Amino acid sequence: MSGRRNSIWIVDFILLSSPHIYYICGMSTEKAIVMSGIRPTGYLHLGNYFGAVRNYVKLQEEYTCYFMVADLHALTTHPDTKELKTNVHRVIAENIACGIDTDKAALYCQSHVRETSELYLYLNMLAYLGELEKTTTFKDKARMQPDNINAGLLTYPVLQAADIILHRAIYVPVGKDQEQHLEMARNFVKRFNHRYGEVFPEPIAYNFGDDLVKVPSLDGTGKMSKSENQLATLYLADDDELIRKKVMKAKTDGGPTENNSPKPDYIENIFQLMRLVSSDETISSFESAYNNCTIRYGDMKKQLAEDMVKFIAPIRERAASIQHDEAYLQKIMKQGAEKANESASKTMSLVREAMGLVY
Ligand code: TRP
Question: Are residues 340 and 275 in the same domain?
Answer without folding.
Answer: no
